[in-house]
Amino acid sequence: MSSSSxxxxxxxxVMNGDMESSDRESRMLKSLDVEEHAIxxxxxxxxxxxxxxxxxxxxxxxxRIIPALWCLYFLTSFGSNCYGLTLTMNAETKHSLIDSxxxxxxxxxxxxxxxxxxxxxxxVPMNLIMTKVSPQSWLARIVISVGLVYTCYSAVGSAxxxxxxxxxxxxxxxxxxxxxxxxxxxxYPNDRSxxxxxxxxxxxxxxxAVAGLVSAGFQKIDGNRGxxxxxxxxxxxxxxxxxxxxxxxxxxxxxxxxxxxxxxxKLMQLYSKYFTPRHPLNDDDRELHRRDLEHxxxxxxxxxxxxxNILTDLRLWPLTIMYFGVVGTGFGLxxxxxxxxxxxxxxxxxxxxxxxxxxxxxxxxxxxxxxxPFADKFKRxxxxxxxxxxxxxxxxxxxxxxxxxxxxRYAGLLIAGFGLGPTVPICMSWSAEIFQPRxxxxxxxxxxxxxxxxxxxxxxxxxxxxxxxxxxDAKRLYQYSNMMLVLMLGVSIVASGIxxxxxxxxxxx
Length: 509
Hints:
Layout (H helix, E strand, L loop, with lengths): L5 E4 L2 E4 L3 H9 L4 H13 L3 H39 L10 H5 L3 H26 L4 H18 L6 H15 L2 H12 L5 H28 L8 H23 L14 H10 L7 H11 L10 H8 L4 H29 L5 H28 L4 H21 L3 H15 L2 H17 L1 H15 L1 H9 L13 H24 L7
Antiparallel strand pairs: 1-2
Helix pairs in contact: 3-6, 3-8, 3-9, 3-10, 3-12, 3-14, 5-7, 5-8, 5-19, 5-20, 6-7, 6-8, 6-10, 8-19, 9-10, 9-15, 9-18, 13-19, 14-15, 14-17, 14-18, 14-19, 14-20, 14-21, 15-16, 15-17, 16-17, 16-18, 16-21, 18-19
């Protein structure tokens, strides 16, 4: 696109002297539809051979990037799934985390809530840092930090220590989800991003399923060498996570194009030499990739005024409310899914509960694989696709609350899991689609961090105020807690409709 004023020099992208005037022109677009139309025109200018080459190069990038992001998200998600399971592991022998530390319901709800408070406070700062540093190094740092902290869980000995560790876990993990969304925006255009976000988002679901299966195995070695089953799980998980985090330094590629002058600092040059992997594309593919993404690589410099402008953009808040409802429901089921299953059928053993927990997230995976491709193909119907998925979750929660018999109620959890899958990827790709054309690099980073950070208040609500945080609801088989999640989902549906109505009517000049 000529308006981007970006020129390719020696394999990197740099701004020419007309960048400021070009920025002013881009900011004067009267509608995001103008931007989308320009991008579509650029794509239509490709020959059939170039289109096939584009598809081929993105598949090549998929093979390099998506598995790395998948492993990253799998391991960072595994810790939170682990925590929910350790609350009930070996409960029959009084060796669960709750019994070992003599935790009250207030302790568990406070610990869960503070985990998300850490995310909320630090999501935006962490993502802003990522715009200024090597993104692959920053993502690797997150994984290594998470592994170190969760290894410490195996030595926790009191409720206070657990609560502190939960807050630290949220702090070191902050920026994971918005950081990955930002990273994907560096390598993929928006019309290809939702599906990719969905691909690695499946890691959270597989992680939840595997955690349930793995916890069943660790319960078998409870007491081995004087450690509880939950302690063994944290130790093994921590070591594996640290190892994979270090490997990401050579596995994940850095930015596709250089956007900053190289540092003269010898230490930084040495780090770049040994810890920055080779570009995954050849020269011809890199040039075609540059053409396809040059609309993305503008407005790369930002000030705090830009951040304030994003925070005061009305379109940010419907997206945050959408995320609030679906993430609150998702983490409510992730942390307390075993609690719901056990309440519906008290005769189940803790191992059986862990095994029944896994299929919920396999259904979630199926929802991602089936529905997210439609969200990319029909971008203008994102609100409808999102609302349809929310309705599926609502149906599932109603079934699991009011159906007769434990197995019918369990089927409701599977239905809810299927609907949960595509909701979060839609929220993240939609925020990038709305905020990147006007605000550029910082728009993608800050919108993703705010949507996921403040949206995690839904997780706080589900984990602190509902289920174990609402002891009186246990006698009702968590009926009221389930219906509060349904109410949150209804608000998310309304918010998606509002976002659809105002997305091209706010700050278009």
